[in-house]
Amino acid sequence: MTEEISKSPLLSELAKKVASGEITEKEIASIISKPLEPKKEELHPNPKLNLQLLLYYLGGFIVFLGIVFLIAQFWPNMNQISKTIISLGAAISTYCLGYYFFTKSENKHFGHAFLFISAALFPLGIGTSLDAINLKAMTSSGASIKKRFQNSGYRDLI
User: Fold this and answer.
1) Residue 135 lies inside a defined structural domain of this protein
2) Is the pTM of this model over 0.85?
3) Do residues 128 and 80 touch, judged by C-beta distance below 8 A?
């Protein structure tokens, strides 16, 4: 209601100026048809790294470590299909959650955290998938660190 009260004197003054010929209808139409320029704050949101954002990333890293340790406990006892489903499934599901939070949520930092977890899990998932089809991506065929220690006399470190 207050906007209408403040608009009515402005509109009546505009109508008087159009009637007197000070302003033409083409000038009004050109002002209306111009796109409004966004404010600088809308173009560049606050890019600072604050404590909340830092805790989101730290939380994402802790969740990633938790997933890694949980999978590592049962990894030797799993068959290749289970390894592929767990590793690639975790990567895909965290990617989907990250995409959802990044595009649909008001707070995009949740999406960043899940996308971080997904980016860390995808190499493991792709590697185990390649191992399942007998393309050895997870094993080293070259010189390993263990062989290097055995040959150098540091056998008690192994």
Assistant:
1) yes
2) no
3) yes
The answer to whether 112 and 102 have CB atoms below 8 angstroms apart is yes
| The two structure tokens encoding residue 52 | 């909340």
Alpha helices in 34-144 (DSSP H): 40-43, 51-74, 80-104, 109-132
Same-domain status, 118 and 142: yes
Q: How far apart are CA 158 and CA 146, in angstroms?
A: 7
Q: CB–CB of 84/130 below 8 Å?
A: no
Domain of 64, in residue numbers: 48-148
Residues 59 and 117 in one domain: yes
Read off the pLDDT of residues 17-66 as tens digits, 9 standing for 90 and up: 888 888 887 887 777 776 656 555 555 555 566 888 788 778 878 987 88
SS3 percent helix, strand, coil of the chain, rounded to 5, is 75, 0, 25
CB 78 within 8 A of CB 86: yes
Task: Look at residue 158 and tell me if it is in a domain.
Answer: no
